[in-house]
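Bumping with the actual sequence this time:
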Amino acid sequence: MKDLKHVYGSWCLLAGAAEGLGEAYSLALAARGMNIIMVDHQDDIMQALGDRLESEYGIETRRLHLDLSRDECLAMMMDAIRDTSCRLMIYNAAYSRIKRFEDNSFEDIDLYMGVNIRMPIRLVHSLVSQFAEDRGQKKGIILMASLAGLWGTRLLAPYGATKAFNIILAESLHHELKSQGFDVIACVAGATSTPAYLGTNPQYGNIRPSIMAPLKVAEGALGALGALGKKAIYIPGFSNRLTYFLLTRILPRKASAGLFNRVTGKMYPDA
């Protein structure tokens, strides 16, 4: 694995930095000596984590308390990037709910679109435009996605659709931007023991998904990017990779989607 700080510089913009996978990414980056532009809507948690990172790892943090569904946040993040010459961006922020499609309000739909699609694609576009002529330095982009973006799944329709968008976006840009010095990957995670996932109170039947620790997901994604982005899609965890292989290479899509939906239905019977 390449030294991220040597390859991508000393700063990383981390959108969704405070809790769960965001905390894990913050810790993994700080352990590598990287300074972090922390972006999150949970200000108290972000401030406490930022203080901890600076105290324990001796790094510098800049903290942006932003609601990423709002368009004006883009300019604030780009200003922070220009001020630090940041060349590494991780988009971890996401809006997610477990509910039937018709139970989502228009406000929910707008949040799915704003946080999960509109902001990441605008941020990536702005980054690419800013560094379009700079082919001498490497730039890195990680877009967090989910196995839920690989099959249409009950109770996750808008979330899964937005994550499918990010997978295709990352895979497309992985190939298109390579010649411009960009390494772009999608980290397609499975069940992860974050407060958001555990807070859904999943129930398990005979088939129990492998639940990963957030730090293992973050370390794996940084390692995949540190390999100079050789793969466009990174799936953390052997069990998740095995599941992906079986459901995409062995079973037909109809059977795979059916199995995925049965498992999800048993996990959330009350929904």
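The tokens above came from a reply further down the thread. The beta strands are 11-15, 35-40, 61-65, 88-91, 139-146, 182-189, 233-234.
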